[in-house]
Amino acid sequence: MLKRLQNKWGVSTSQFAVILCVFAITGTSTAWITKVITEWVGFTDETFWLWRFLLRLSMLLFGYQFILLGVALLFGQFPFFWKYEKKILKRLGIKIGGDNHKSQIVPIAIFASGAGSNAQQIINYFRDNPSVRISLVACNKPGAGVLKIAEQEGIPSLVIEKESFFRGDGYVNLLREKGIQWIILAGFLWKVPVTLIKAFPGRIINIHPALLPKYGGKGMYGHFVHEAVIAAKEKESGITIHFVDELFDHGQPVFQAVCPVDPDDTPESLAKKVQVLEHKHYPEVIAKLLEA
Ligand code: GAR
User: Fold this and answer.
1) Secondary structure of 204-245 in the HEC alphabet?
2) Ligand 1 centroid to 138 CA: how many Å?
3) Which structural domain range is residue 113 located in?
4) Is the Cβ atom of 250 under 6 angstroms away from ligand 1?
5) Which of 6, 81, 82, 167 is the most exposed place for a label (fewest CB within 10 A)?
6) What is the pTM of this model?
7) Cα-to-centroid distance, 57 and ligand 1 (Å)
């Protein structure tokens, strides 16, 4: 559950620990300050309950938020908590300056190695969405179909060389310069290096054409996956969308969808069923993660 929260917030493990400390210290401080104020105004157990209730409520609604930002500042976590406060205020219908349309745009990068049918679906899905911009298509194969798609769609693309990719140099800076907030792997077949995972903690997701943890790992992609599923006489297969960690097809799952494997299915017919699921669900799941 904690890991899920960490992924949702998109922070590293050490930052996550500091954030939890900020919450704990704020809770304790708010309780203590409320007690001091209660004594200062002279409220006792005999005071009419409504006045005591209103004092506690206003401390919870307003005092807590101010104390939270103060403690966050002390722990160097002001930007995270300010974003958190702005979300709460937005839900209450209050908009804070600087929370304008431009700052709402979430730039994302798609990493792909092949034909790019999933990349195309994602691009189509977000085409008319002013809050999401696909700012980059990164690819490890010169001439891959996905590069053609990027060109047709007017999206900047980047071909990453193997050594540079695993060293993490150059392109990580480019992703930062472009303000990329999420990396979406859509048929990207290289293992993601730790450098990239550290640069985007909890912000890289992948889609796999099987029900992980089965039929994942090195060499398990495309038709190899479907061949293995059919050879094992599985009754069902499907897709898994998951956060990316240091291992192949391994991070925490976000979503799965299932399709039947019929006795007369071939790897090709199964691939088609799985692709239908991918195209339907991947863009929707991405949209939900970006909103969270
Ligand atoms: C998709 O089926 C995706 O699930 C798979 O590559 C295909 C890319 O197709 N990814 C993996 O196997 C990751 N291990 P596309 O290029 O048509 O989007």
Assistant:
1) EEEEECCCCCCCCCCCCCHHHHHHHHHHCCCCEEEEEEEECC
2) 15
3) 102-291
4) no
5) 167
6) 0.72
7) 51
